[in-house]
């Protein structure tokens, strides 16, 4: 502001020097998340530069690039994309094809269209930006790392976890050698890498990455920054998944207290930590504590207008899970159906939640002997979750297993065999410690289906493996191991 006063007096309010200062002032407002003020100053700077330099000058293009980045932060991706495409068009006219300014616009445009799942175009833009940056700065420059982070997020969104992990690891290795001036991209890389590991069930690896990300987010942007809050919820969920319930509960309680202090006791913002707390209590078998927490979260979210459908659906599904754990299937069924309807009503729904809830509905129908009704739900859930996680995820394996069980109950043994074989194929590709008991159970059920169809050699081979896998994990005296031994003895004709 001081420089703006001096330059406006010395050069005039419509000067190039004043425009440059207005742009810098706008960036300060943007970093402080004062987006309306930032936009006003940027548009003043743009108007001055257009009058002085003409509408197609590279400095005018730079202003459109800045406006595009700002519009994305303001939550207007359509306006952001329009500004960035205009900037890119102008820069291609005014700059060499390998100019770093062009790389910045390519990067920002890809980041803007990524949430709309235009992955091929976004990847092409990012790869072009990466080539330019590597030529201009070298392969180990922090600017290269920033583009690698977005590319890693793209791979993760396409369930290409190995590629996502190696790309994010490369970005973090660059920052380890040359720390960035802005810590937020590194924090995003840590959080994205943690999410990749969490999605694969590698919770012990995910948790410390989240902790590092939280520290950087909060140091750079404060504890209320959306990315800091998201990482806090994710790390609490990781601790819960590891069975570290005391830490998970403490984290959710801290977030609940923080939200209540910020918004009051009747705010829908309390629903998210309430759902987290309820879910941990559900996993601990404390249904009496979990149920009222889910109910309170539902009541808070039902007051939101327009409805916050995803959070409400998740809370409803959690309450249904609570009833299922107590074998109250009649109470759970309408809740699952309502949750599914809410998720399907969204223009862009969360596939993981929709697929899980659809599969859970199939499970309770099977548990009530309604296997014919359950089968299409399992198939639909498998289709959804194969898109959400990729076709070789343990969640997909579990649904193939349950669907095969429904076919087996209906005595449709060839279809049951296909389902168990698909579940087995996925589980055999997973890391050895992913879920060895589930692998053994799949072998056992498949062996029994082979035996029921008089496929004796297949049954012997499969049941023998089931015994080996289960005994290694559960010990020789376990009842499931004993059952597998009896089935193997029966098909092999040994006592």
Terminal residue distance: 91 Å
Low-confidence stretches: none
What's the Cα radius of gyration?
Answer: 28 Å
The helicity comes to over 70%
% residues in beta strands: under 5%
Average pLDDT rating: 93
Number of helices: 24
Bulk shape: elongated
Report the sheet with the most strands, covering strand number, pairing sense and barrel closure: none
Number of strands: 0
Oligomer: single chain
Order of helices and strands: HHHHHHHHHHHHHHHHHHHHHHHH
Task: Give an account of the 3D structure.
The chain is mainly alpha-helical and about 500 residues long. About 80% of the residues lie in helices and about 0% in strands. The protein has 24 helices and no strands. The protein has helices spanning about 1-10, 15-30, 35-55, 60-75, 75-95, 100-115, 120-135, 140-155, 160-175, 185-200, 205-220, 225-240, 245-265, 270-285, 285-300, 310-325, 330-345, 350-365, 370-390, 395-410, 415-430, 435-450, 455-475, 480-490. α2 runs antiparallel to α3 (about 35-55), α12 (about 225-240) packs antiparallel against α13 (about 245-265) and α16 packs antiparallel against α17. The longest helix is centred in the N-terminal third of the chain and has 19 residues, at about 35-55. The model has no long low-confidence stretch (mean pLDDT about 95).
